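Sequence in, structure out. Go.
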Amino acid sequence: MGNILNPGNDNSFIRLVKFKDSEIFVDKTDFIGKMSAKLNADKRLFAITRPRRFGKTVTAHMLSAYYSKGYAGQKIFDDLKISKEKSFAEHLNKHNVIYIDMNSIKDKYISYKSDKTLYIDDIDDIVDFLQYMVIRDLKENKQYAEQISSDPLIGKKSLSSALEVICKYTGEPFILIMDEWDLIYREYQNETALQEKFIEFLRGLFKSDDGGSCFALAYLTGILPIKKYNSQSALNGFKEYNMLSPEPFEAYFGFTEDEVAEIVKSPGCTLSHEELKKWYEGYKLNGIHIYNPNSVVSAVSDGKCKSYWSGTSSNEEFVRLINMDFQGIKEDIINLIEGDEVTFSCANFQNDMVTVKDKNDVFCILVCLGYLGCAETKNQYRKVAYVPNAEIKAVLMDIVREQNWYERMETIKRSENLLKAIKKLDGATVAAIIQDIHNSSAVALLDYNDEESLTYCVMTGLLWATLDDYSYHREDQAGKGRADLVYEPITRKQPLILIEFKYDDSAEEAIKQIKTKEYFKRYIKQYRNIILVGINYSAETKDHQCLIEKLD
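Output:
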């Protein structure tokens, strides 16, 4: 392969550095120092997992560019954070690095399987092929080739033995970096024997005696944590940092609040910090607010906030998991989209996509995949799941609406009935539906003490019914003031809906304000059919009142 042992080729990190003065570049090279502190230490095996497009590969490429002898002499880290540290030169390009990109291995294995002329004896599956490719790369080093060839026990697929022989001869342990370590668990889900073979292969590499001494550092990255068997990790020597337990590396994968604040100051950025926050922030890792880095970069480049998530991965796993419908998880997902939170346990999660026993496992997987954020509780095994931002909310809504059970859900029916009641000028029904939403878990009753809370309640109710035909605006400049909530139709077939809220006043006064301040005048030339909605909540009676009129 030529790029497994001591890679020195161009990679994603080097390209970022090369264009750092003209493109978005966030310097996280101080992470290298944290890894260097663990070289040859007792705890030197790391597994750091995050969702797709959270900077895992860039970080792996960064470590490779720093440690690998293949990059010696290249001025990659000049003026970056790591260059200011005292230990900078100590490990710079002084290690033998084995870099394994499992996506690349998979692609080459597929090509190998499809061409019978490439057949190699005893290479029966992707695990065999992986070992064969690494050994082949090691043999391109004449010194290593001589040592490997002199040992009759080393064949095409005995990588651990090959590394032991080399290390005994050279006295130099390797640094192993494996990107997408969990690919076999994600893409060969139902091949249990293959998964177990892969884990046994990794166990053989990192066993405590000779195998473990072959590595000064091992760094695995992927999406899923290391699989557990009977509550024990399959690779006991590894220290894991994932979305369920990220500390102390929370800030190194994704953009932090301060980093985004600097990004919006750049001359080419036309988006506000608040826009980026609404769309891409929301992953709260041990109190640190993390933004999806790929989406932020894409949005700033395009000058537009939208969902970039669906372009990064398949949603098939999400669909499969929610359609299991453990303990009403379909309803939970809809409630989460509407802003609710759900408590779950991660105590018995087996860290794979197949051994899914209950709703708790589903939520653990969705957090690891990035579809949900999670917050800590006083119990380390109890977490609170939520939809992190507008980007993920948009993705989840699109997925849910494609399911054959979508229209049968009570929440969806309620939303449609609310919109129908508004169009029919049926204030009593509207008030009753809003009362029902007010009494649901999606609304925090203790905080229901102003017009803002009332606005959120109505927006929650109309969420699903207005997706195709309306866009909404809050505090829209109109007439002689700002309208509380406006639902503007995408086509003129639908009525424009102007909503004004009152708290401890009256629905009549809300309608009066719309007319007095002429909120409708901005729209009257474009829309002939305009509906005025006045809603009031009485803190004393805990009731909603609604008055609806058509503009004459």
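Check: The first helix runs from residue 12 to 18. The chain has 21 helices and 18 strands.
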